[in-house]
Amino acid sequence: MSTQTGDDVIDGHTGRVRLRAEGIEVGYGGRPVVSGLDLEILDGTVTAVIGPNGCGKSTMLRALARLLPVTAGRVLLDGEPLRDVPSRRIATVLGVLPQSPQAPEGLTVGDLVARGRYPHQTWYRQWSSDDEDVVADALERTGILDLAERPIDELSGGQRQRAWISMVLAQGTDLLLLDEPTTFLDLAHQVDVLELVDRLHREDGRTVVMVLHDLNLAARYADRLIAMQGGRIAADGTPAEVLTESLLAEVFGLAASVITDPHTGGPMVVPKGTSRSQ
Amino acid sequence: MSNGVTTRTAGHETRVPGRVPLRVGRFSTVWRLPPVVVVAVGAVGVVLAGAAVLTVGDYPVGFADVFAALVGASDRATAVIVLDLRLPEVLTGILVGAALSLAGALTQTIARNPLASPDITGITQGASAAALIAIVLGVPSGGLAGALVLPLAALVGGLGAGLLVVALAWRNGLESQRLVLVGVGVSFGLTAVVSYLLAVARIEQASQAKVWITGSLTGRGWEHVIPVGIALVVLVPTVLLASGGLGALQFGDDTARGLGVPVERARTTMLVMAAALAAVATAAAGPIEFVALVAPQVALRLTRSARPPLIASMVVGALLVVVADLVARTLLSGIGTPVGVVTAVLGGPFLLYLITRGRRETAR
Asked: Which residues belong to any copy of the ABC transporter domain (chain A) (predicted)?
């Protein structure tokens, strides 16, 4: 695996392994979706997981975030097996934004983001000045401080997604797992969310693993791509190493040209058609 | 708060609009006016309505004499009527209302569904069915045996029904939609058991059983007040201390787990507490209809919260039962209407009013 990050190199990049999956098997109702999977996530990197629908990318992310128990193998967080660490302590180190999260009707943005402080709270310490500072910063970072008193159900899709990311930020973790953070957003809002992720990585040195559908955005905002197929890793490396015409044909069944992105110099996928349409 | 107050507390400026800090020493919370107002006004209402109930009956007692009896300065006859006969009924109503409403607030929150109250999901029906089985087996409703065995049977039945619902709904964890549907199924099944028992019961047993089907405060004594009181003294602080994860549980399971809430354990714990509260309440006064469903939803709307507020729900539940009791004893005194009928008549329309008003506000 390459740790080369081009012009994205930041101070926090130490090469330390934050998350390690060792031969994990994970699935739903006894049917494994992912099996025998090994993976290491290095500190200070941005990793995008790509792959066709149903390839197990969300399942793998949920296993890394202990949202789904593994049926074989194990996941280590900073060297400690996840199942040995209390859920609440994991939540102070690892923040996760699940796919299409649900909020109760009438909950305000400020209250939503404040719930990200749950792992740090006790019954008598519900809104310490620490909590307040971290939540205000999280709202500011995502540009929604002025929406704090608005109910979440009144927001647009892009604003709502920023509110959820803000809640995960309020958890104060330097490791973020995002499951399709750009789903249901138009292109401008997708770029908006990924620019935010990029700032969190560059400015704070946060480690990010995200599941993305758009290959070109994945290539642009991640320094490592993991392509999955049928519950295993089909390719792993820099965007230029992974996004090749042969891989696109093999993994996605997509006939495409890979050209140079005029803005970043990275790879850019231009589809011709799928194997199904040919 | 919706008016955007940014007050300063102890020289600290509010940094998150709508979340005004309230900090005393190591204690910190968010200051919110509506819940405080609802709790304060509701508590005053409970005291006033409760005092009013103490004055009415076959032997009317004035407010002044009620007060004198309460402080131990009245004649013996008044003291017996107020303290021994009426006060336990009023206190049972207050405690049962609070317990049912807290149970409803918990089940509605963890199931993320306003329909998921103990009287919809079979817990109160379980308590009723178990009490009826005891009656049909020959346990008299009066006397020491009745006072001990029937509430115990109701408690076991209520908890048993709650555990049955959890066990049947469990499939790699508890999913809220499944929990409600299984609860409704169990509830219908137990209602059928109740109907069957009434059909096979002898006539005098059936009339004893009446209280276990409709809910009533008539004839409640200190032997009913004390168990509910003890249950509340134990369960309420436990619930409040464990309630930190309830806000996170309102999100999807993945989000709650991501925030560090052990979802299954937290949900099962809260469900067992709710079942215990509802069963204890049903054991004391029978299944008083609608309180557990309606009071938390009324409190939710009055406090403009995003989830049923626990303390405000208890106060609203207590108020609903006491006011219903007052109405039953005054306006409907000749008919002997059980309080459970009045809670439904009072609570239903008020909830409908709040819901339609809420819809108009959102539409605006």
From this structure: 19-255
